[in-house]
Write a structure and sequence with these properties.
97 residues; mainly alpha; Histone, subunit A; two-stranded antiparallel sheet; 3 helices; 42% helix; 4% strand
Length: 97
């Protein structure tokens, strides 16, 4: 599957990447090659294959969440590691656009 320059720019924009024209061409070709390989995999007959998410037999081990209050020393230690504070609250950049 060959991507055109507009599609590559769109994907870069979604990924928050600012790429030069040279980088757009390079990475666009690489992405097109990967998508081409995936298209090849679509041609494989898997009609007799049982769908599965994993084959190792491993299972998730879940532990119940337990709320534990922090003492003042732990709170101060955590706050001292924050890049920016507003009083005793951690200040973060806005994530929504």
């Amino acid at each position: 599957m060959k991507l055109d320059k507009k599609q590559i720019k769109h994907i870069a924009s979604l990924s928050k990447l600012e790429l030069t024209d040279k980088e757009l061409e390079k990475y666009g070709n690489q992405l097109s090659d990967v998508l081409g390989y995936i298209d090849q995999l679509k041609e494989v007959d898997v009609s007799d294959t049982i769908p599965t998410a994993q084959v190792t037999g491993l299972e998730n081990v879940l532990e119940e969440d337990v709320v534990r209050d922090w003492d003042n020393k732990e709170i101060d230690l955590a706050l001292n590691q924050a890049p920016e504070l507003d009083g005793r609250e951690v200040k973060v950049k806005r994530v929504l656009e």
